[in-house]
Amino acid sequence: MILEYYTMDDIDKETLRKYRQIFEIRNDGHVWNALDDKSFLEKLGGYRKDRRECKEGLTLAGLMMFGDGLAIRNEFDNIFMDYRNETEITMDVRWNDRITYDGTWENNLFNFFTKVTPKLTEDLKKPFKLEGIQRIDETPVHKAVREAFVNLIIHADYLMEAGVLKVIKKSNGFEFTNPGILKLPLEDIYRGGNSKSRNPHMQTMLRMVGFGDNAGSGFPSILATWKEEGWMKPELIEDTALNQVTLYLKMIPEYGEQLSESAEKSAESAEKSAESQEKMLSERQKQILACMELEVLYRTEEIAGKIGLKGPRTRQLLNELVAMGRLTCTAATKNRRYIRIE
């Protein structure tokens, strides 16, 4: 898909520089290393010329992976990227860390991937292991978690009316949610051997710097790793009503799945936190949440019309809900849209 209105000026130079640096380290002597940025992106499928129709420009993959945040939000303001660390939630804390668009980083996919991946794996065990004289700091679990993140990116449907690329880190596992439905039957995905990525150019871009695989073995490798660890089998759940797919990776023993005392306390604490915050909500705020479907974009005017308030007061209530963590929003502009996340 050529986005002919988007050119190399819409690429975030720092993101592409970072990617090329990793590419050169992993592909020393590769002929693409000598190419200029535009030619390099053409080889990766991030820029395309259609001589038959006499048009050229960035592709969807090129813009989403390496684009300037503003250009991405202009073209794909329907898509959000959201990471939350919920490992130590309490009555007053709904998450311990969060990465979503806040104006401090260019919100393209490669930045999202490289910012979030270290946070996902920083607490995983790293047993001391040598390969020759070199220490190996990665385990199959590290690779499986990263593979799950890659799958989220390459299988997401970026052309949907609304959707969230959501990554949640919990005390006993991970959740990866992407917009779009499955392109293969579940049994074929669990069996492996087939690769039917919705975004093959993104898959190539990540594979060329060491992330992901094209042979259809990614998901089975996750299954094998979780089985080796003795954990519950990963669950891939397709929600056709919301048009999204969620992968649950639970680090819970397959047999004896009882919650530990600390986990029970954590769950109880989270429940009390939700109840406590529910009591703090005003009737108008509750009314807003009640009329918003999960993970659907809404403009201020739409909400104002639903609850019978004027725009400025409605905007104030919406921003209060954002501050409370009940909603998230696109950007601080007149075209701001709001989305209920839980």
What class, by secondary structure content?
alpha+beta
Order of helices and strands: EHHEEHHEEHEEHEEHHHEEHHEHHEE
In CATH, the topology of the largest domain is named Heat Shock Protein 90
Biggest β-sheet: strands ordered side by side in the sheet: 5-4-8-9-11-10
Low-confidence stretches: none
Number of strands: 14
Shape from CA axes?
globular
Mean pLDDT: 85
Protein architecture, described:
This protein has 342 residues and is of the alpha+beta class. It folds into 3 domains: 1-77, no CATH class; 80-264, Heat Shock Protein 90 (2-Layer Sandwich); 281-340, Arc Repressor Mutant, subunit A. The protein has helices at residues 13-26, 37-44, 60-66, 69-75, 109-121, 140-155, 186-191, 200-207, 218-228, 261-280, 283-291, 300-307, 311-323, and strands at residues 2-3, 47-50, 55-59, 79-86, 97-99, 130-131, 134-135, 163-170, 173-179, 235-239, 244-250, 297-299, 327-329, 337-340. Helix 5 (109-121) packs antiparallel against helix 6 (140-155), helix 6 (140-155) runs antiparallel to helix 9 and helix 12 crosses helix 13. The longest helix is centred in the last third of the chain and has 20 residues, at 261-280. The mean pLDDT is 85.
Quickly describe the structure.
The chain is 41% helix and 18% strand. It is α+β, with helices and mostly antiparallel strands.
